[in-house]
Amino acid sequence: MTSIEHITLEVADPAAAETFYTDVLGLGAWVRVRASDAPTTGFRGFTLSLVVSQPANVDALVDAALAAGATIVKPAEKSLFGYGGVVRAPDGTVVTVASPSKKNTAPASTEIDDIVLQLGVADVAAAKRHYVAGGFTVGRSFGSRYVEFKAPARTVKMSLLKRKALAKAAGVPVDGTGSHRVVIGGGAPGADPDGFVWEAASA
């Protein structure tokens, strides 16, 4: 089964980004950074989703991110699907933090249960076929609207939504041009239909 071992964010200030993702959010095992000045504007076509066990953990991570220079996109609040909020990291990456639970059952912590790379694509069905051909295994699929792939423990999960739907869910305008500013380290399933860059996990 193909999987994503890590992602690399291309940023203007690698030292600051390393501190933010490793020291503040605790994502050092899954998120790498490297310098880039590739042109990019607006929505980059992906979000980094952090899934936690309870609302208090959402608040703890959002507060830590804001204290480290992130900006609020959507304040954390209850919804039909649980509790969550959205921030924009100092490098521009849109980060969602969410819990399927609406109640706290333990003291707050910043422990993360799952990391999901959500890709906004032009055609969900076509992208699904591409990734399945590249070795990914579908976990859940809702027609041409949403696909979630299976992933081994301690790896980055991946899901697909239409670009417009992902932008709406994140609370950001859909328009954007230039580089995605993300490199996906995993099975490298060949030329990506939406221009996302892949490289071997060992790179």
TrEMBL record:
Keyword Metal-binding recorded: yes
InterPro entries recorded: Glyas_Bleomycin-R_OHBP_Dase, Glyoxalase_1_CS
Gene3D superfamilies, A to Z: 2,3-Dihydroxybiphenyl 1,2-Dioxygenase, domain 1
PROSITE patterns in alphabetical order: GLYOXALASE_I_1
Keywords: Metal-binding
Keyword check for rRNA-binding: no
Protein name (database record): Glyoxalase
